[in-house]
Amino acid sequence: MCSLWTEVVFKHPKTFETLAMDPEKKREIIDDLDMFKNGKEQHRRVGKAWKRGYLLHGPPGTGKSTMVAAMANYLGYDGYDMELTSVHTNTDLRKLLIQTTGRRKATGDGEDDDDDAKTTTKKVIDRGGGVGGDSKVTLSGLLNFIDGLWSAFGEERLIVLTTNHVEDLDPALIRTGRMDKKIEMSYCDFETFKSMAKIHLDVDDHEMFAAVERLLPEVDLVPADVGEHLTAKNPRDDAGACLARLVNALQEAKAKKDAAERQDEDNGVVV
């Protein structure tokens, strides 16, 4: 059967070691993935399809796509990336699911791949809050895809939905049993910043951390922007220079926010 997928080599560099987020939250996700990966017999014993649904939601730039890459690399799964608006009918959606087969990649721990190690990682991207355009995929068709009879086709399957607007999704789509693990990818907080400072600058503490801790809660800055400020621009950029650039950006963002709030007050807008 002719494949409906276009195959490319997956060599995304993102791993959980280089994924910037709250360490406790990261550990929780890794533990959940381990539970799923080792859950074949448990799922079989209780009569459940060996699959798990993840919902990643938050503003653009908060690391949803890199989280998917880190998950795939951690588990050694094949990745299938689908834009729902490009799927025309429920039948097409089912055909795509049937063809999501692959092997778990070698883990480097001495274990050989075999025919029983069939795996797939299914990444379904929902941009704009749902199907649209010329697509005739229905909500019932999508739900059937996630947890209907066809969802049990093959072996283990991780289904990941990402969205910038979780409030636009139908509650039936994201209930437990379909999306078992819901992860908010939000604006950068201080714990996430500290992990980024370690990754980018190899520092655990610095005199400028206090200013960052004070300013971060005052503004909405996504991790992607924080990472850009922490990236050395030239050989002379040390940790102090990068942190100073970040603090300056935070101060400017706070000044703009304060000015907008004052303008709203002058216009009689309640915020």
Describe the structure.
With 271 residues, the protein is of the alpha/beta class. It has ten helices and five strands. A five-stranded parallel sheet has the order 2-3-4-1-5, with helices on one face. Strand 3, helix 5 and strand 4 form a beta-alpha-beta unit. Helix 7 runs parallel beside helix 9 and helix 8 runs parallel beside helix 10. The longest helix has 28 residues. The radius of gyration is 21 Å and the shape is globular. About 10% of the residues have low confidence.
What order do the helices and strands come in, and which of them pair?
Blueprint: H1 23-37, H2 40-46, E1 51-57, H3 64-75, E2 79-83, H4 90-98, E3 119-125, H5 139-147, E4 156-163, H6 171-174, E5 181-184, H7 190-201, H8 209-215, H9 223-230, H10 239-266
Parallel strand pairs: 1-4, 1-5, 2-3, 3-4
Helix pairs in contact: 7-9, 8-10
Order of helices and strands: HHEHEHEHEHEHHHH
The largest pleated sheet is described as: 5 strands, parallel
Strand order of the largest sheet: 2-3-4-1-5
* % residues in beta strands: 5-15%
Whole-number average pLDDT? 82
Stretches where pLDDT falls below 50 for ≥5 residues?
A: 107-132
Counting helices, strands and paired strands, the structural category is alpha/beta
Count of individual helical segments: 10
Report the strand count: 5
Shape: globular
Give the distance, in angstroms, between the N- and C-terminal Cα atoms. 58 Å
Rg over C-alpha atoms, rounded to the nearest angstrom:
21 Å
Classify the helix fraction into a percent range.
40-55%
